[in-house]
Amino acid sequence: MAIKRGALVGCGFFSRNHLQAWRDLGDRCAIVAVCDLDPAKAEGAALEFGIPAHYASVEEMLDREALDFVDIATTAPSHRAIVEACARHGVGAIVQKPMAPTWKDATALVVAMEQAGRPLMVHENFRFQAPLLRAAECLASGMIGEPTWGRFSFRTGYDIYAGQPYLAEVERFVLLDLGIHVLDVARVLMGEADSVVCRSQSIRDGIRGEDMATVMLGHRGGATSIVDVSYASPQSPDPFPQTLLHVDGRKGSIQLERDFHLIVTTPAGTTSESVAPRASHWMSQQWCLIQDSVVTTQRHWLDCLDRGTEPATSGRDNLKTFALVEASYLAAASGRRESPATV
Ligand code: NAD
């Protein structure tokens, strides 16, 4: 397969993980340009990662470079315009979550790429985390039978504002920033949901949006699940950035506990295994769960480009997760059970 030529847009906090991961995948792709509205950031990333070109304008980069894909690691308000520019230039794109700040923009950017006939994947990396891939594999094997109930939980007091200060300013906060990841995991393990109940809370002083949310999903097969997310849960030791889960099935259960202990109970007995992520030289101990999943996510994108197949987290697929976020906000405001939009 020919080496794919990519360009990265948005050289901020999280983009380092993308660039390191693309470097790990260097036998299959080359990042040939980077772009940031702040020229110093673009130049700094180009210098550090040995990337030949840097730009301050996406349009100029798309005009000048011959690309197989663009990797969009900017914050959500810019995603629609950048994806639409990629569509106009006939270039595929992988875009960070959340796809957009609103449902209108999210659907518009998916439609733009579909009309251009180019692939679009959302960088939804939680379902690609090593422990969650293993939990999904156990569930899919049928060893605990049909799932009947699930709990997917991410609660932390970690200072996320230090690396991402913009999070204190967003009106729709924890559900759109973090809930979107955990709702996606609930979809993958329990199947599609057709009803949503939600309560949200704003706990920390000085933030604009909600930093705690509890969602109850009714799944099409009859199962129930709880997705609870919090950035306002001081604790020690803090499991950040781990998602913990418990799924009951008709024949057993799966529990993912702190520090990557997976406990599976089946009619044959209970087993426990360590499902720790792979650590590589550029990863930190605390972040390697996320960093390893970035490599797996980006590898999946390259696999799909090579094979011409639709990514598991395509724009269209991610709209289903986005619809759960929207229904959660609606349910939190109305106090009633809401139905997600049909995608
Ligand atoms: P950031 O603000 O640190 O970096 C964003 C960069 O994009 C900035 O340097 C900004 O100048 C640049 N930018 C903005 N608009 C642009 C445009 N139109 N053209 C070129 N450059 C532009 O943000 P961040 O914390 O790195 O977050 C980026 C994205 O990554 C967000 O969508 C966030 O939700 C996501 N994120 C994902 C994970 C994950 O685990 N998947 C973790 C953290 C952040």
Question: How many discrete domains?
Answer: 2
Overall geometric form: globular
Poorly predicted segments: none
The number of helical segments is 10
How is the CATH topology of the largest domain named? Dihydrodipicolinate Reductase, domain 2
Protein name: Gfo/Idh/MocA family oxidoreductase
GO molecular function, one term: nucleotide binding
InterPro entries: Gfo/Idh/MocA-like_OxRdtase_N, Gfo/Idh/MocA_oxidoreduct, GFO_IDH_MocA-like_dom, NAD(P)-bd_dom_sf
Domain GFO/IDH/MocA-like oxidoreductase: 133-254
Key descriptive features of the protein:
Rossmann fold; globular; 14 strands; alpha/beta; 343 residues; Dihydrodipicolinate Reductase, domain 2; binds nicotinamide-adenine-dinucleotide; single chain; Gfo/Idh/MocA-like_OxRdtase_N; GFO_IDH_MocA-like_dom; Gfo/Idh/MocA family oxidoreductase; six-stranded parallel β-sheet
Annotate the secondary structure layout.
Layout: E1 4-9, H1 15-24, E2 29-35, H2 39-49, E3 53-55, H3 58-64, E4 69-72, H4 79-88, E5 92-96, H5 103-116, E6 120-123, H6 130-140, E7 147-155, H7 160-163, H8 174-190, E8 193-201, E9 212-219, E10 224-230, E11 244-249, E12 253-257, E13 261-266, E14 269-274, H9 288-307, H10 315-334
Parallel strand pairs: 1-2, 1-4, 2-3, 4-5, 5-6, 7-10
Antiparallel strand pairs: 7-11, 8-9, 9-10, 11-12, 12-13, 13-14
Nicotinamide-adenine-dinucleotide is lined by residues 9-15, 35-38, 41, 58, 73-76, 78, 82, 96-97, 123, 125, 164, 166, 177, 290.
